[in-house]
Here is the input.
Amino acid sequence: MGYWKKHPVKELNALLGEYHEAGWEIIDPPKYYKVKCPCGGHMRSIHLTPSNPNYARDCIKWLYRQDCYTGKVVARR
Ligand SMILES: [Zn+2]
Here is the structure.
């Protein structure tokens, strides 16, 4: 399914899955992942080895805060 390479950290891989489900584009790293939202106005990087233990949770919260995030899986009809 996912076109990004598996993230070595389980939680962060799940995190990338969340972004993917929300319709974000995930760009594979040389050093970190980049996620780009469907509206094109939001973008951030996802680190490979974050030192912050809450990093995955913070990134999810950030996703939920974006105005273009609907909370629904983006599906084409
Ligand atoms: Zn957006």
About this structure: DSSP finds two helices and three strands in the chain. The mean pLDDT is 86. Residues 37, 39, 41-42, 66, 68 surround zinc ion (CB under 6 Å). Residues 10-65 form one domain.
